Amino acid sequence: MANIPIDIASNLAQRLVNRAIIEAKYLCCFKSYVENFEKEKKRLSATRKSVGEDIKEARQRNESQIDDETKQWLNEVDSLIQEDTESKKKWIFELCTNCISQHR
């Protein structure tokens, strides 16, 4: 019975350490995450342009209906393309310098 508080504290400490490791990894890898996101955003933008041209062609053929799934996808793409990662990257690194360079 005396071991119960120790077990609870140990379990809680382990969870906190695991969470801290996850957050530290995120901060250290943030720059690469942003670079990957920017690369994928360019691909998505090209796909968005292609879909927009397909919609334009369909409208020229008097197919004025765009299904709801396509409209939702276009809205999601537009919001992702407008995402400003550069300001987030600057904000993060004002608080924490690049952990990888510090490690080196």
Automatic annotation (TrEMBL):
Annotated coiled-coil segments of the chain: 34-61
Keywords, in A-Z order: Coiled coil
Q: What name appears for this protein in its UniProt entry?
A: Putative disease resistance protein
Source organism per entry reads Senna tora
